[in-house]
Amino acid sequence: EIVMTQSPATLSVSPGERATLSCRASQSVRSDLAWYQQKPGQAPRLLIYGASTRATGIPARFSGSGSGTEFTLTISSLQSEDFAVYYCQQYNNWPPWTFGQGTKVEIK
Amino acid sequence: QVQVVESGGGVVQPGRSLRLSCAASGFTFSTYALHWVRQTPGKGLEWVALISSDGTNQYYADSVRGRFTISRDNSKNTLYLQMNSLRTEDMAVYFCARVSSTGPFPDYWGQGTLVTVSP
């Protein structure tokens, strides 16, 4: 089973600043990585797939990069609606599909 | 628009059974595989099961294999999760999610249904 590890657990950022979230896989997942955003009481929303492709309707301030075992989600200028929990998920080696434990982006 | 709506959650005693449903609309249900994913406060998101578009292939997490059964009725646009021999560690919010057409990852998720397992 591929273990996904996200860091940091919590990121405190001021509105308008850049946020950089990391995700590491225990073995290579090539570019088969997705990022999700989840707000309290809501379903996860797909942001990025293929490590760097934005899903339909996702603003350009969200970008993904990386391949193999190291991945990054960058939010270029945080808006109020971006404060949420973000999860990475690998879909290269399955089953199981595995998620990171999440990074909470909170207002500084 | 794509919608998936879960139902069937509730409070159940350990060892008992529960069946979750997921009603889909806004897309051609019979051409998409579907996941069940659960979420607990302590363990985050955990994949549970996947079923292929025609229902012939199913995959399960080790933690539920032999106890849970995923199935679908393409004539009713509905996904199911039959949960038997429930344990306290199965307590979670259960989401159904459509598999993307561009890769085997979830793209659209429902709001979830809460399963509470308590004596």
Features:
heterodimer, A: 108 residues, mainly beta, 7-stranded mixed β-sheet, 4-stranded antiparallel β-sheet, 0% helix, globular, B: 119 residues, 11 strands
Structure description:
The complex is a heterodimer of chains A (about 110) and B (about 120). Chain A is built from no helices and eleven strands. Chain A has about 110 residues and is mainly β. In chain A, strands 2, 4, 5, 6, 9, 10 and 11 form a seven-stranded mixed sheet that branches. In chain A, strands 1-3-8-7 form a four-stranded antiparallel sheet, with no helix packed on it. In chain A, strand 9 and strand 10 form a beta hairpin. In chain B, about 0% of the residues lie in helices and about 55% in strands. Chain B is built from no helices and eleven strands. In chain B, strands 2, 4, 5, 6, 9, 10 and 11 form a seven-stranded mixed sheet that branches. Chain B has a four-stranded antiparallel sheet with strand order 1-3-8-7, with no helix packed on it. Chains A and B meet through strand 5 and strand 10 of A and strand 5 and strand 10 of B.
List the helices and strands and how they pair.
The complex is a heterodimer of chains A (108) and B (119).
Chain A: E1 4-7, E2 10-13, E3 19-25, E4 33-38, E5 45-49, E6 53-54, E7 62-67, E8 70-75, E9 85-90, E10 98-99, E11 103-107
Parallel strand pairs in A: 2-11
Antiparallel strand pairs in A: 1-3, 3-8, 4-5, 4-9, 5-6, 7-8, 9-10, 9-11
Chain B: E1 3-7, E2 10-12, E3 18-25, E4 34-40, E5 44-51, E6 58-60, E7 68-73, E8 78-83, E9 92-99, E10 106-109, E11 113-117
Parallel strand pairs in B: 2-11
Antiparallel strand pairs in B: 1-3, 3-8, 4-5, 4-9, 5-6, 7-8, 9-10, 9-11
Instruction: Note the quaternary state here.
Output: heterodimer
Structural class of chain B: mainly beta
Strand element count of chain A? 11
> How do the helices and strands follow one another from N- to C-terminus of chain A?
EEEEEEEEEEE
Structural class estimated from helices and strands of chain A: mainly beta
Mean pLDDT of chain A: 96
Give unreliable regions of chain B as ranges: none
Share of β-strand residues of chain B: over 45%
How many helices of chain A does DSSP assign?
Answer: 0
